[in-house]
Design goal:
- The complex is a heterodimer of chains A (497) and B (328).
- Chain A has 497 residues and is α+β, with helices and mostly antiparallel strands.
- Helices cover 33% and strands 25% of the residues of chain A.
- Chain A has three domains: 145 residues, FAD/NAD(P)-binding domain, CATH 3.50.50; 176 residues, 2-Layer Sandwich (Guanine Nucleotide Dissociation Inhibitor, domain 2); 93 residues, Guanine Nucleotide Dissociation Inhibitor, domain 1 (Orthogonal Bundle), CATH 1.10.405.10.
- Chain A is built from 14 helices and 21 strands.
- Chain B is elongated.
- With 328 residues, chain B is an all-alpha fold.
- Chain B folds into three domains: 95 residues; 101 residues; 88 residues, Serine Threonine Protein Phosphatase 5, Tetratricopeptide repeat (Alpha Horseshoe).
- Classes of the chains: A alpha+beta (497), B mainly alpha (328).
- Chains A and B meet through α6 and α7 of A and α10 and α12 of B.
Chain lengths: 497, 328
Amino acid sequence: MSDYTLDGQEFDTVVLGTGLVESIVACEIANRTATGSDEGRKVLHIDQNPYYGGSFACFSPSAFIEWATIFRDPRQTPAVEIIVGGVSGSQPMSFIVNRTTPREECDTKRPTAAALQPFYSGDANSFDTEACEDALSLLLENDRKYAIELAPKLALCRGDMIDLLIDLRIGEYVQFKGVEHSYLVHGGKIEKVPESKEDVFASKTLSLIEKRKLMRLMTVIADDDECQKLMDEAAQSSEQDFCQFMQSKFKFDGKLLDAVVYSVARADGVHRLGAAEGCERVRKYVRAMGRYGRMAYLCAMYGGGSELAQAFCRLCAVSGGTYMLGEHVEIVQEDEASGFTVKTSEHGTVRAKNIVMDPVYDPEAVFDKGAAVSRAFCILDKEILGDDTTAVLCHVDDQTATSLLYLTQATLAVPSGQSILYAWAPGPLTSEKRAQLQRALDDVAAGATSLLTVYFEVCDAKCTGKKYFGTSVPDSLVDFDSTVQHAQHIVKLIQQD
Amino acid sequence: MHGRRRELVREPTVDEKAQTKQRVDKYCALNTHVMELRSNNVHTEDALSATRRLLELNTELHTVWNYRRQIFVHLDGWKSEGDRQALLEQELAFLLEIIMKNIKSYWMWNHRIWALSQLPSPSWDRELKLVAKLLAVDARNFHGWDYRRFVVSKVKEAAEDPAAVDVSEFAFTLEQINRDFANHSAWHNRSKLLPSVLQRCSEDERRKMMDDEVELIINAIYTDPEDQNAWLYHEWLLDIQPSREDKCALLRDKVSKIRELLEIEDDSKRPLIELVETLVALDGLEPGSVTDAERTECFDTLTRLKTLDAYHVNKYTDTESVLCKRWQ
């Protein structure tokens, strides 16, 4: 449709980037009005990449390497460390991809050893092309069976994301599997976090007294009145953080305390988790269980952020939104009165009242290393925590906490027999942070070999001085609710205009 | 079935009333027809299908089940083993269909047992699988558990090592208890199997098994002190103790475990009640074995219970006066 032009059209909102936040915004604006509340909210949704998902995108191994070498915004993710192989006795090879090449200059789609060679971090003369090709081919022969997420997240069974999906009836587009297990990794040992009375009863690692204490907390949280009393008490103990509150009120300590503070309330060891907020998170967690089964979280098949973003985009399109992938834009003019002029690279120039964008579309966006999230993943040759299952974990040591997610073919994230382990933590990827992520991955993946290990960071950014509505990068929380709240906040701001 | 919400009852609409009347009329006509066939001793294939249609609508008609059995016995094919097998397999399939609709029909289960008893070589393994599936759907259904005990007894008859069957059943109950330890049927079945499992053990193994059972109970009590199943199971354990010394030892152990629990949680009603009742039981088994300090402990506990559990204050007062008389 290259002769199709949008030249001269007027849109209410142009959305740049098909990340999850942008997609929810686009969908809400197009859809709510399509059901009759307002007039003329036309949406134009553009992504400069040839794929959906933005910072939530999901890739096969070849596409991931493409992202690292071509599509990534170096301001946001300065470098990607890729470690390939280590199977059948050969040494793993490490590459630091610290620059990107424009798409047009790359001659082949399929990543080859030759394409990676310039980034080899070892001695250039010792680069073994054949070993690299072998290691890559192990991944590439099943390329399409992988779904590697840039920002893995889960959906709380009772939470904003699920409610939104049900409300908009997008539930039919996306499939989920329950996250069956939650683990705490403490002192190098992986232990199941008991989540129900039955788990507590059957646990062989909790002492009798710990069982009783945990049950007392669960009973209080599960009872509306008792829970409210607890929340009120927590709100009054504002000097205490959640960890101290659990110690003083329920006499938790040791790994039981860690389980509640890190695995359930998901403190991240960096930001202070107040007593009231911690209790609220535990309440949400416990309330989420039982809705769809004995689990608190759901994991989307084929890669959550990306699938969900596409589902929202689909609904936006159905409600009249226009879509363009692989299209670059230039925002030519800002006019207080009548909005923006947006020049697309292939399809003409349009006018828009509002612009919502992923900050990577703003050449003058300011990137903040302090507000970064460090991420890592490794693809393993074994299903170390069980086959056909999904698990969320928390690795705790010396006051640092790392979130992990373990996926298998149960959610079609990897081919059968393999698994993928994600690890992430807030903060820039300093050498300490990298070591922290590596410890977490090593402790959990012990006994398996990694086919591909990657480390990178994602810096948040602000569009400064302009009247764009900028979205944030995926945060370090494990569930989508904050993403939905962020999107809904933007929608509200737009609707106020 | 357990775990299902009751449906809200509301006044039926005119259409619904008409529909219901139609169904009722159809049912009554069929019922009359079948009863007529029966009083005329009709034993044909047609009569068989009529009874089937009626039983699909209402599984509780034991007269009709009886009649159906009579028809079967009078059919031409009944005499030949091959034909009988085919007829009964069909019958079992029919029963499978309606089991899911109404798991709690005594007559249907009875009929199934009859059908299996008429088969020259019934597949008890298949029956075991069926009942396992049933219990997976509703783990507390006593029809299911009862039928399971029946099937297991048949399996044992044919088995090379009947005692091994008991052991695997014993493990099955543990699975069920772990799944949901409020499952009274699972605890009950376990108590029925325990004596035979203990029989094959040596003296040391017996000790260990008993300790394991007590550990299971203690785990349950610490997880939920108010759940009655674990406490009840302890009573059964007590019953199977061979001697009075064993009983007393078990009770003494129970008292000390309760005291440990009360140290971290002194406001759970059930453990407090059990403490008093256990000491009283000890006193009954071995008069004079309860010390003065322990007697005071009982009275203090009863006083505490009167404030914790105001609903039953009179019961505790009554117990107090009984103990006063006994221990004076």
